[in-house]
Amino acid sequence: MSERIVKPVVNPEGDGTLLTVTPESAGWEYVEFQVVQLAKGQSFTRDSGDQELCIVLLSGLANVSTREHTWKNIGKRMSIFEKIPPYSVYLSSTDQVEITAISALEIAICAAPGKGTHPTRLITPEEVGVETRGYGNLERQIHNILPEQKEADSLLVVEVFTPDGHWSSYPPHKHDRDALPEESLLEETYYFRVQPEQGFAIQRIYTDDRSVDETLAVNNGEVVLVPCGYHPVGAPPGYEVYYLNVMAGPTRTWKFHNDPDHDWLMKR
C-alpha cells in the first residue's frame, strides 16, 4: 500500500477517533486532520492550542459548546450523499470545544497553525458557497466551506462530489511552489467517501520530472496525503465519490498551476 494513503482504524479509539493525520505523521508542516465517529450521547472534547480548527459535521446532529458559545441541535444532513452543505464550526486558537452527539455523528476536524486573529463562529449551510464546476464528464459539485474569501489564518476547506464516471481536480493541477502570484505552496489532504461503499476512487499523484508518479486505488473512508505534484481524481462508473479537502501553507491563498500537457481542456 502506498504511504500516501492513511486508512481508518477497524475499532475506533475510546473517543471515537477513526483516523488522524498530523504534520509529524505526514512529514510536512501545516495540515492536521482527524475523523471522529460518535454514538448518540457520546461526547468529544478538544483544545485548539496554537491551531485554528474547522470542525465539519459530515453527518448527524450535535450540540457544540466552546468557551463563549453554545449551538444546540446543529446538523442537517444525515448522510454525506444527501449533497446538501454541512454545518461547520470555526474554532480560533486558544479555545476549547465539546461536541455531544444527539444522533449517530461523524465529524472531520481540520487544523492548521492559528494566530487567534478571527473569532470562533458557526458556519451554517446557508453560508457555504455551492457551485458546479467543469463540463461534461468533468462536472462536479463544490461546497466552499472555508474558502480564502472567508476569515481564517491558515485553513482552506472544501468538499467535492464527483458523479460516477466523472473526473475532478481536473485538469491535473498542483500548488507545491511558494511562487506567488503564479502559484502557492499548499499541503493537502483528501478524505474520501464512496457510494456504494464497496467502490473505490482513483487518484494519480505525479510531478513534472516524474520523481513522484503514483496511481492510487482509494477506498471508502481513507485519506490521501498530497504534499506535492498534480493530483487528479476519477470516479469509476457506478460509484459516486466524495472528498473533503483541507489545505494550508505559508500563505492563505489558492493559486494553482495546471499541467501544461492538459491545460488545453480549459479552452474547450
Automatic annotation (TrEMBL):
One short Pfam family name for this protein? Answer: KduI
Protein's UniProt name: 5-deoxy-glucuronate isomerase
Enzyme class, UniProt record, top EC level: isomerase
Q: Which UniProt keywords apply?
A: Isomerase
In the UniProt record, what gene is named as encoding this protein? iolB
Q: Report the InterPro entries cross-referenced here.
A: Deoxy-glucuronate_isom_IolB, KduI/IolB_isomerase, RmlC-like_jellyroll, RmlC_Cupin_sf
Molecular function terms from GO: 5-deoxy-D-glucuronate isomerase activity; glucuronate isomerase activity
Superkingdom of source: Bacteria
Biological process terms in GO annotation = inositol catabolic process
The Enzyme Commission number assigned here is 5.3.1.30
